[in-house]
Amino acid sequence: MGLLESLGGRYKTLSLIGMVKNAGKTTLLNELIHEAGDRDVLLGITSIGFDGECLDSVTKTPKPRIMAPGGTLIATARDLVLKSPIKIEVLEVTGFETILGPVVVFRMLRAAYVELVGPRSSEGIREVSRLMLKWGADLVIVDGALDRKSSASPAVAEGVFLSTGAALSRDMGQVVQKTLHQIALLRLPRVHAHEAAYEALRKEGKIGIIDDSGEVCVLDLKTGIQAGKALRNHLKKSSRAVFFPGAVTYGTLVEMVEAGVMIVVTDGSKVFITREKYLELLAKGLEIRVVQPINLLGLSINPVAPKGYYFDPKELREAFERHLGDLLVINVYD
Predict the structure, then answer these.
(1) Which residues sit opposite 154 in a β-bridge?
(2) CA 247 → CA 12, 190, 268, distances in Å?
(3) For the segment 41-67, what is each residue's pLDDT rounded down to a tens digit?
(4) Cα distances (angstroms) measured from residue 245 to each of 192, 238, 239
(5) What domains are there in the chain, each with its CATH number?
(6) Residues with Cβ < 8 Å from 175, sequence gap 6 or more?
(7) Tens digit of pLDDT for each residue in 153-194?
(8) Full-model pTM
(9) Are the CB atoms for 210 and 296 separated by under 8 Å?
């Protein structure tokens, strides 16, 4: 059974994110494009950040290119379209600016390789996805770029695939541990008390303290990064949790753990902490929940690194499957 068939048409938007460059994310995208062609599924494709380069922008090694069949809907920067010989039908010129001009939505009139530079914000991705669905896409795929795990957010896509592989480390054990840590963050559980209060704070983009009765104290702080000490000055004995709409890091998390309050974030893509620090805080009683859980659909693995070393594909897959019995694990090179 193919990946798209296993999804059963349940999703309109998917996001692909990678643990590291050369984790096989572009190969996974090309596999989904190939399956879509076989199943007469019309795709829309865009990206957060650059992709589709002939040479990897980090390692300078050749990387898979994105081949879009005729009929595919693409959202990318205008200047990339102008310099390309591909045959297209322009459908929309959006107001979302990139360093290469506004994002343009177009239909491929024949198969060709494409470069993707999409909107930089979740709001922009949502809008260009809506436009491509309006123009007939059955499924929109968002190609997340390096260090843009925000493309895993439920605000961007209904489902997510994570890619990992040998490029992450020469030590297979490290690859497995680091990836499982990221999966744990992406799959943080939903908060089940005072949901309306947290949702209101999320929509307003405000940091807030929630007490035992559900009362909210909105704070005048622009970011939760390194804000732990300032936050502690506002905590009371009745304070139950602190909500952060954006990113949180170890410095803030450790202060909240020491204060004995729960941390609530928008979704798991907003938490940035190493595995070692995360385990340290769990041992100290870290309690962390999300307002919008991420729907992680599967893990794709690449056992080969661009620097020439590789892992046994079966051994790598089985190492993940021992820990992820309920999550699809695929080697797109099989």
Answers:
(1) none
(2) 26, 17, 9
(3) 999 999 986 654 555 555 555 567 889
(4) 17, 22, 18
(5) 3-187+294-331 (3.40.50), 195-290 (3.40.140.80)
(6) 164, 165, 166, 168, 169, 311, 316
(7) 887 899 999 999 999 999 999 999 999 999 999 999 999 989
(8) 0.89
(9) no
